[in-house]
Amino acid sequence: MYLRLELVRALRNPWTIGFSVLMPVALYLLFGAGPAYGAMETPRGTVAGMIMANMALFGAMMASTNVAGSVSDERASGWTRQLRLTPLSPVYYIGAKLLAALAIGLFVVTITFAVGVATGARLDLPYAAWAFLLAWLGGTTMFAVFGLAVGYLFRGEAVLGVVGPFMSLFAFFGGVFIPLEQLGSVMSTIGQYTPMYGLRSLLASLTLGAEVEPVAVAGIVCWTALFAVVAAWRYRRVAGRE
């Protein structure tokens, strides 16, 4: 029942859904749609297909961080305190948040891929399917946990002040918009240890045939674990005070 409530609340917010879809689609149309990139071949499709996958990943990440705002609102309204008076366990509470984020992420990634394919982007099978799953499951899971951590660390408007700038920095240093090679050796080195780099690197291995980097896989595991630990720690602290 609680999962259903989370899904209904998420899907009935037109502003959140609209922005989550509009952002990656607009970025794809700006950077990837066009005859030049549509005709430019890569080992596993076209450049437009690679940009489509990158923007879908970014969209899933942005959509999943909306959980930070919902957690902050629940804390401010006293809803979190009320839930602790019910038989609902913390595991189911967190699980419902993550599943709701996955539902929104699936919607965002599907729309972005659909617009990309409709405008000439191409990725060869099965790489297109794997890229879709990585953008959806990978991007949503890591940054939904990040959103939970931020939601329990900060209150009110401070949440938006943290999520927005950090996501922009993560995307910049992760090479989502600009290849790190163009930013110099120092930026490239720093970028390898930022949260988005691992997911974007794995996506490049799927869309461009690039070699899988061990640091990318390690980064995904370590950052997701770190966000989860912070979220769990803060949830316990908040539960003890509010």
From TrEMBL:
Transmembrane segments annotated in the record for this chain: 12-31, 51-71, 91-115, 127-151, 158-178, 215-235
Topological relation to the membrane, as annotated: Multi-pass membrane protein
Signal peptide: none
Domain of life: Bacteria
Protein's UniProt keywords contain Transmembrane: yes
Keywords assigned by UniProt, alphabetized: Antibiotic resistance, Membrane, Transmembrane, Transmembrane helix
Domain annotation ABC-2 type transporter transmembrane: ranges: 44-233
Main location: membrane
Subcellular location: Membrane
Protein name: ABC transporter
Protein species of origin: Mobilicoccus caccae
Lineage, opening ranks: Bacteria, Bacillati, Actinomycetota, Actinomycetes, Micrococcales
